[in-house]
Amino acid sequence: MYTGRVLAAAQQKRSTVPVWGRWAIVLIPGFALYFLPIAGMTAAQRQLLAVFVATIIALVAQPVPMGVSVTLAMTLLALTRTLTPARALSGFANVTVWLIVSAFLFSRAVTCTGLGRRIGYLFIRRFARTPLRLAYSLAAADLVLAPFIPSDTGRGGGIMYPITRSVASAFGSEPGATSGRIGSFLMLVSFHTTYTGSAIFLTGMASNPLIADFARQIAHVDLTWLRWFGGSSLPGLLTLMVVPWMILRMMPPEIEDTAPAQEYAAAELHRMGPLSGAEKRLAAILLAVMAGWVTSPWHGVSNTVVALAGLCAMLLGRVLSWDELLDERRAWDALLWFAPLLMMADALNEAGVIRILSSKLFHAMAGWSWPMVLGALATAYLYIHYSFASMTAQVTALYPSFLGAAVAAGVPPMLGALPLAYFSNLNAGMTHYGTGSAPVFFGAGYVRQGDWWRIGFRISVVNLVIWMGIGPWWWRLIGLW
Q1: Mean pLDDT across the stretch 332-355?
Q2: Which of 74, 79, 381, 428 could serve as 435's disulfide partner, Cβ 3.0–4.6 Å?
Q3: What does the pLDDT look like over 241-265, one tens digit per residue?
Q4: Cβ atoms of residues 307 and 331 within 8 Å
Q5: Considering its fold, how many domains does the chain have in total?
Q6: Domain with 35 in it
Q7: Given CA atoms 70, 74, 79, 80 in this order, what sign does their dihedral have?
Q8: Which of 217, 214, 196 is nearest to 205 (CA)?
């Protein structure tokens, strides 16, 4: 209920920009790239780049829904014969796309059965005696859900936000005069730990499998589920330990004893009753899917096939009905806009456009040592997200060229791929529009915009220190590079 109102308000605010103005923002750069010569590019390469850039801008400006933008782009590429019809539609056959769709359907099952809410309240009932322990309980609950819900909007806005909002209300902390009692603190903690959970798992955010696909094409490294988690485990754990403590110092709650939160969680769990049969079956299936992902390097079955097997088990076990599967609009929406995006990114790489752009980017850093290049690229990639309202848009637009520039500068391929992959998630915390869950938590009204940006920037600096300071040493220790 809260989530729907907040998202509606955010959408209404964005709609105040005239549609014709948003179309102008999209079309002007596209036409400029289409007609103006670019050194080193053929007409076909330039046309492909023009359509791609206009599509990325459309994902940010949103003159129409994302699915409409990418469908228009896909059709235009076929109509202008920039790509063959079969190539334009090839994204729908990509295994990465179906892994994302399957993971969204897991999210539907976790939400419909109530298992997600139960996990959240179990952690709160067990650990939440002080504000900091309550914060860690929220972080732990999100961490358990993150491998199976590839959307910080769905996980943070759909599961963790309602729990956080209810706990704040139980302490009499509402937006406005009483927000400082504990609501401001809890909203910030829940938000910042949500996108951190997305960074820790390959299946924690919709674009992470896309990143792995780019890394395989451009740097020729295989970011398996286990390698991704191995690289993120120590830096991610440190972030989840440090960030709630930082927020406690920057936005200290007035309430020091949060034992009533345990009582509230216990009451909610009592109201929910014992584990249902569907919840038990779902938990078993999710654990089996997790085991399949972790062991994929040994049994050789792709992550997508493991996910589809889990989906079949949910359907046969009546955890999720066929009608509920069809009703999961986010999964089918992701299929329709993500597949053409992936197709265009693949086509850009095959046509050599990524190589040309990467060489131009690296030319500005010629003569630098590769550690300096990596540090500059990772920092720029993190803070350029101030200009993006979508993690997927930034990943699609910039990850290939930034990774290509890193590899061209002599950065070890895996060392170039990993920090850019993790910062594709960690960049979401700096603004109140940087990811889908941000308007949900910010729109609740507990935190002023100035405080949101100030705390977000400080946390981004800490993330740079942890993931670029400790990260490379950890990745070296476990043999990733």
Answers
A1: 80
A2: 428
A3: 999 999 999 999 998 888 888 888 8
A4: no
A5: 1
A6: 2-477
A7: positive
A8: 196
Residue 183: closest CA among 469, 480, 444: 444
DSSP 3-state of 205: coil
Q: Which of 261, 14, 325, 17 lies closest to 122 in space, CA to CA?
A: 261
pLDDT, tens only, 303-329: 789 889 999 999 999 998 999 889 888
**Alpha carbons 229 and 234: distance in angstroms, whole number:** 9
Cβ within 8 Å of residue 426, ≥6 positions away:
195, 196, 199, 239, 382, 460, 463, 467
Q: How far is CA 340 from CA 97, 224, 227, 333, 396, in A?
A: 10, 23, 27, 12, 11
What digits encode the pLDDT tens for the residues 38-77? 666 787 888 888 888 888 777 767 777 878 888 988 998 9
Close Cβ partners of 53 (under 8 Å, ≥ 6 residues apart): 29, 30, 33, 397
- 238 dihedral zone (left: phi>0; alpha: psi -120 to 50; beta): alpha
Q: How far is Cα 10 from Cα 8, in angstroms, rounded to an integer?
A: 5
CA 267, CA 291: separation in Å to the nearest integer? Answer: 33
Q: Is the pLDDT of residue 279 over 70?
A: yes
